[in-house]
Automatic annotation (TrEMBL), chain A:
Superkingdom of the organism of origin: Bacteria
One GO cellular component, as annotated: plasma membrane
Source organism: Pseudooceanicola sediminis
Descriptive protein name: ATP-binding cassette domain-containing protein
Alphabetized GO MF terms: ATP binding; ATP hydrolysis activity; transmembrane transporter activity
From TrEMBL, chain B:
Statement: the UniProt record of this protein carries the keyword Nucleotide-binding: no
Any matching Pfam family: FtsX
Cellular compartment(s): Cell membrane
GO biological process, one term: cell division
Chief place where the protein resides: membrane
Residue ranges of domain ABC3 transporter permease C-terminal in the record: 183-296
This protein's name: Cell division protein FtsX
Domain of life of the source: Bacteria
Bilayer disposition of the protein: Multi-pass membrane protein
Keyword field: Cell cycle, Cell division, Cell membrane, Membrane, Transmembrane, Transmembrane helix
Organism: Pseudooceanicola sediminis
Length: 225, 301
């Protein structure tokens, strides 16, 4: 689904990532870890077409990122659910409409999917907040809402960037639970985090692979984690 | 024009749900509304001026072109004989449809504005006037003058072209100015709406980023903005049209002696034109916003 072949990415000055090769198999569960500033967010952006590699090749669903137009990228995002580190919403729309936003922008009939939407909101434990505006939500609620929005289109891949960054341990367990559930439904999941206890908690529930970015390279971390 | 109407109809029907993704913004909305209203108000007057002067130029060049005046100045005892001779000449001139000596009452009415109603014209040595109506082809003015010089020595032919030409030219110039003003008004409106759209797009950078993240295409995002600006421009233009037409209706109506200034306004089919202005404003807003939105969105990640 996502294939990176000897990919490199450099910002104006130096090289941030280099010699990165990865094949993300359907149904796999990956963690991406590494020190702050190592390039985890950049790596994820390369995986959903927000950045174009400066060298090498990134194939998303069989298409070379370099050859995608703006509309192709938009269509791609409907197949890849992204949870950002700082979840952004449309602050003037209530939570339920924000979660349904991907349906709306892709021209699907939101009314026809009302039941799915209600189920998803309940599953994320946000039923009592469905009419709240995003600025009124707590950090944990925002993270769960961002996850709900990322999966409403039933994407094949879910990329989450520090989804438990702003929440307490209990809430991060609930979020992990949601992601593990999604993986059991067959979704490919990749979570960028520097929280090792979260990775350990996941290992007891699902078969995961841990990738580590260090010295600009992507390495498969040992089994000791 | 037809394509524009189809797009406008599509816009009006629109997707009200998708419309909500852009938060209502206060000042760009008011700015667009005000610009459209003010520009349409001005456009109504520019249009009225163009139509009125166009009408005037047309009247002057057709009605006056087909009439001429023969003036017979001679001693009082000769007037009747020379008038009859002149009429005789005119009736045998090719290109003259009819010729008629003005009655004393008609001559008095012509002079009244200058001399007042009580002047006894019969006692004054006022020349006799003969009104000549030409056929469509017209007559040979020089040939007629030569014949008159031989047969009616007291006759002077005035075929009006001498003073008509500069008037028609002036009216055409004013009309061209009016049309130029209309063009400029449209251009200024497009410029102001482009600026307002730029500012709205910049103010909503976060909204656009979120929409792109969840898979919205540029067209979807642009449409939300374009629809809003087009509707605002149309409602502003309707407001400006109402005020402009109110102003036109309040102008004093045309009087025969008032000249062309009081003839400013719309007549007959001319009334259709001002009602096209809101549609035109909508089209201008549509293209201006669409261009601005596409340009800005292309520049984003």
């Amino acid at each position: 689904m996502i294939e990176l072949d000897n990919l490199a990415y450099s910002y104006g000055g130096g090289e941030l990532l280099s010699e990165i090769s990865l094949r993300l198999a359907p149904g796999s569960f990956h963690f991406l870890t590494g020190p702050s500033g190592a390039g985890k967010t950049t790596f994820l952006k390369l995986c959903y077409g927000a950045l174009i590699p400066t060298a090498g090749r990134a194939m998303l669903f069989g298409q070379d990122v370099r050859e995608l137009g703006r509309d192709d990228v938009a269509l791609l995002r409907r197949r890849i659910g992204v949870v950002h580190q700082d979840c952004q919403f449309l602050d003037h729309l209530p939570l339920a409409e924000n979660i349904a936003l991907p349906l709306m922008v892709s021209g699907r009939d939101v009314a026809a999917e009302a039941q799915n939407l209600d189920d998803l909101i309940a599953w994320c434990g946000l039923s009592h907040r469905r009419n709240a505006l995003p600025p009124e939500l707590s950090g944990g609620e925002r993270q769960r809402a961002a996850l709900a929005r990322a999966v409403i289109m039933s994407p094949e891949v879910i990329l989450a960037d520090e989804p438990t960054g702003n929440v307490d341990w209990e809430m991060s367990q609930r979020l992990l639970q949601l992601l593990v559930e999604l993986n059991r439904m067959g979704k490919t999941v990749m979570i960028a985090t520097h929280d090792l206890s979260l990775i350990r908690a996941a290992k007891s529930q699902v078969q995961t692979r841990v990738l580590r970015i260090a010295n600009r390279r992507l390495q498969l971390a040992g089994a000791d984690l | 024009m037809r394509a524009v109407l189809v797009i406008l109809a599509d816009l009006l029907r629109g997707d009200t749900q998708a419309d909500r993704v852009v938060p209502p913004t206060g000042f760009t909305a008011r700015l667009t509304l005000f610009a459209a209203a003010a520009m349409t108000f001005l456009a109504v007057f520019a249009l009225a001026l163009s139509l009125a002067t166009g009408r005037l130029a047309h009247n002057w060049s057709t009605e006056l072109a087909r009439s001429a005046t023969l003036r017979i100045s001679t001693s009082q005892d000769q007037v009747a004989a020379q008038t009859a001779a002149a009429l005789q000449v005119l009736q045998t001139t090719e290109g003259v449809a009819s010729a008629r000596a003005l009655s004393e009452a008609e001559q008095q009415a012509l002079l009244e504005p200058w001399f007042g109603p009580d002047v006894p014209i019969a006692d004054l040595p006022v020349p006799q006037l003969i009104e000549i109506i030409e056929t469509r082809k017209g007559y040979d003015a020089e040939g007629l003058r030569l014949r008159l010089a031989a047969e009616v020595p007291g006759a002077v032919l005035d075929d009006h072209t001498r003073w008509r030409r500069p008037l028609v030219r002036a009216a055409s110039r004013i009309r061209a100015m009016g049309l130029l003003s209309l063009g400029l008004i449209g251009g200024i409106m497009a410029a102001m709406i482009t600026l307002a759209a730029h500012s709205a797009l910049a103010a909503n950078a976060q909204v656009i980023a979120v929409l792109r993240l969840v898979g919205a295409r540029d067209d979807f995002i642009a449409r939300a903005f374009v629809r809003r600006f087009t509707l605002r421009a149309i409602s502003g233009a309707i407001l400006g049209l109402a005020l402009g037409l109110g102003g036109i209706l309040l102008l004093p109506s045309a009087q025969p002696e008032g000249g062309f200034l009081t003839g400013l306004g719309f007549q007959g089919w001319g009334w259709i034109w001002p009602f096209l202005l809101p549609l035109l404003a909508g089209a201008v807003a549509f293209w201006a916003t669409r261009r601005a939105a596409r340009r800005i969105l292309r520049g984003l990640a």
